[in-house]
């Protein structure tokens, strides 16, 4: 969220900076800026549409990365977690394998999948065994992602916090 707001602030202020004695203005593509504006106004469906359009347009790599990441944030907030995971995966596979936000958000999605899969439902005992397997796999993925994030961003307090939650969940697993 902070990255979205920061991007919007830069876009509305013109992103002016001095280069070689001249002032240059960073101009974001209209769909990218509109996506940020709609997100800050709470219009998640509108933001989703604009980030998708921005991703399909001819963007610089940094803008394509931010559009894909922001799409993941929006999809997460809309409760479309599988699609959010795909958006974060796209950032990591196609754009930046070290992107901190995507690594941590994807780790959190896996952690929540683990917690949902391992929640007890005494009425369906056979489902519990299958869910435990799925939950263990999700937790293993979350751990791999937090380890990867900490390797690339060792000073990240947020990465340490997510890692601690993943480790706590691992410690709660039945033997």
Question: What does this entry show, briefly?
Answer:
With 175 residues, the chain is mainly alpha-helical. Helix content is 73%, strand content 5%. Strands 1-2 form a two-stranded antiparallel sheet.
Poorly predicted ranges: 11-27
Described by strand count, sense and barrel closure, the largest sheet is: 2 strands, antiparallel
What is the helix/strand order?
A: HEEHHHHHHH
User: Which structural class fits the helix and strand makeup?
Assistant: mainly alpha
The largest sheet has its strands arranged as 1-2
What percent of residues adopt helix (DSSP H or I)? Answer: over 70%
Shape: globular
* Average pLDDT, all residues: 81
Number of strands: 2
**Rg over CA atoms:** 19 Å
Q: What is the overall number of helices?
A: 8
| Beta-strand content bin | under 5%
Distance between the termini: 38 Å
Secondary-structure topology with pairs:
Blueprint: H1 2-12, E1 16-19, E2 22-25, H2 30-40, H3 44-56, H4 61-77, H5 81-95, H6 100-117, H7 125-152, H8 157-171
Antiparallel strand pairs: 1-2
Question: What would you note in describing this structure?
Answer:
- The protein starts with a helix and ends with a helix.
- It has helices at residues 2-12, 30-40, 44-56, 61-77, 81-95, 100-117, 125-152, 157-171; strands at 16-19, 22-25.
- Strands 1-2 form a two-stranded antiparallel sheet.
- A hairpin with a 2-residue loop joins β1 and β2.
- It is mainly α and 175 residues long.
- α1 (2-12) crosses α2 (30-40), α6 packs antiparallel against α7 and α7 (125-152) runs antiparallel to α8.
């Amino acid at each position: 969220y902070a990255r979205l707001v920061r991007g919007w602030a830069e876009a509305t202020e013109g992103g002016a900076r001095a280069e070689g004695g001249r002032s240059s203005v960073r101009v974001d593509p209209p769909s990218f800026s509109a996506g940020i504006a709609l997100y800050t106004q709470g219009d998640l469906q509108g933001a989703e549409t604009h980030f998708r359009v921005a991703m399909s347009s001819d963007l610089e790599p940094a803008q394509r990365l931010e559009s894909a990441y922001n799409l993941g944030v929006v999809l997460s907030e809309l409760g479309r977690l599988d699609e959010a995971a795909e958006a974060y995966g796209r950032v990591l596979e196609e754009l930046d394998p070290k992107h901190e936000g995507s690594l941590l958000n994807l780790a959190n999605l896996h952690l929540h999948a683990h917690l949902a899969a391992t929640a007890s439902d005494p009425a369906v005992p056979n489902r519990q065994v299958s869910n435990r397997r799925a939950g263990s796999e999700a937790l293993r993925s979350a751990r791999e992602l937090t380890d990867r994030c900490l390797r690339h961003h060792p000073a990240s307090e947020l990465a340490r916090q997510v890692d601690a939650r993943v480790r706590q969940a691992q410690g709660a697993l039945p033997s």
